[in-house]
Design a protein that fits this description.
The protein is mainly α. It is built from 4 helices and no strands.
Length: 73
Amino acid sequence: MIRLQAQGVLSENEAATLHLLAGYRNRLVYFYHEVSAEELYQVYSQQLGDIEVMQNAYRRRLKEYPEKLDQTL
C-alpha cells in the first residue's frame, strides 16, 4: 500500500482504504471461525463503497498508463 501510494497509483485516502481492506481480509483468512454470517452480510451489503473506491483507483491508473496492462491473457 505504501509503495502504491509512493508511486502515485493510490492517493493517501485510497492507500488507507486498501490497508483497512487488507486487514479485514486477514481477519477472514486467519480468524474465519470468529466471523458470523451477520457480520459478513453487514460488510458486503453496507461497505461496498470501499471496494468501489479501489476499483476506481485501479481503473484510473490503467487509463493513465494503458501500456502497463498485460494484454497476453
